């Protein structure tokens, strides 16, 4: 999984206390896979400024692209904009272009009292400075993807908006990071075996050690399917090593009495256990 490394930071106490189930990180993981981005880390933090700042500082040191989800609403615990601004030592200001779009699309002055209006425009108080760029990707939405340093991309936590905005931002990601438009960077083979994980552990460890000598991007994994009488082995790597990956798959099939299965079938096996 070469070139562009990424992380996803989910922000919100409601995720940590179990009130809602995070689906955005799973969507982003699949999005990265489909677009040749190497997602290396997913982290969930609460609505705590110090925690957000510390976590983001750590992520920006390690990865090219960080997407955040959540914490940009109108209430007191929505502190993502302020926290990310602090991470980069930037001010937050009421953005007049964003405020104008909010007025045009939502007409808040006609329906909100002064107190509620102040809270509404908290969502237009965002990081400011030469490092900041706001991408308005949909004429029907006033909320932008706020980008800092072309590294951190701030998105809403509402799953429908998060997915819609990420998908519509794809051409920009391709432009910024030089992503290919027509192909994935890496591929994966699945081998189904009747042996248990304990029985295949030694073989897989040896296979991984050998594969690492060819490329550090080759990853061997196993996925147990409890009560189904088999396990699945994942053999993943970059397309330039496709021939070698096929050889590993063939060796795994021979040694572990396996058979190739499609990604769709493997997903079906996994979903049956959820």
UniProtKB/TrEMBL annotation:
GO terms for biological process: flavin-containing compound metabolic process. This is MoaB/Mog domain-containing protein. GO terms for molecular function: FAD diphosphatase activity. Residues 7-176 form the MoaB/Mog domain. InterPro entries: MoaB/Mog-like_dom_sf, MoaB/Mog_dom. It comes from the Eukaryota. Pfam families: MoCF_biosynth.
């Amino acid at each position: 999984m070469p070139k562009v490394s990424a992380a996803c930071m989910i922000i919100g106490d409601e995720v940590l206390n179990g009130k809602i189930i995070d689906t955005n990180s799973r969507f982003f993981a699949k999005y990265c896979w489909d677009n040749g981005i190497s997602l290396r880390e997913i982290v969930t933090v609460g609505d705590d400024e110090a925690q957000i700042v510390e976590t983001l500082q750590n992520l920006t040191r390690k990865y090219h692209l960080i997407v955040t989800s959540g914490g940009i609403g109108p209430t007191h615990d929505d502190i993502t904009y302020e926290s990310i601004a602090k991470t980069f030592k930037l001010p937050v200001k009421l953005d007049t272009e964003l405020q104008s779009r909010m007025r045009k699309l939502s007409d808040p002055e006609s329906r909100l009292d002064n107190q509620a209006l102040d809270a509404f425009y908290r969502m237009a108080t965002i990081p400011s400075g030469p490092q900041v760029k706001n991408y308005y990707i949909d004429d029907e939405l006033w909320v932008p993807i706020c980008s800092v340093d072309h590294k951190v991309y701030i998105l809403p936590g509402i799953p429908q908006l998060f997915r819609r905005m990420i998908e519509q931002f794809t051409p920009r990601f391709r432009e910024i990071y030089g992503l290919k438009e027509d192909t994935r960077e890496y591929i994966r083979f699945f081998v189904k075996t009747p042996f248990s994980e304990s029985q295949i552990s030694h073989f897989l460890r040896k296979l991984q050690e050998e594969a690492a000598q060819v490329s550090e991007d080759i990853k061997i994994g196993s996925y147990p399917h409890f009560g189904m009488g088999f396990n699945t082995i994942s053999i993943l790597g970059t397309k330039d090593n496709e021939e070698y990956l096929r050889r590993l798959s063939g060796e795994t099939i021979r040694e572990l009495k396996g058979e190739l299965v499609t990604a769709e079938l493997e997903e079906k096996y996994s979903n049956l256990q959820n």
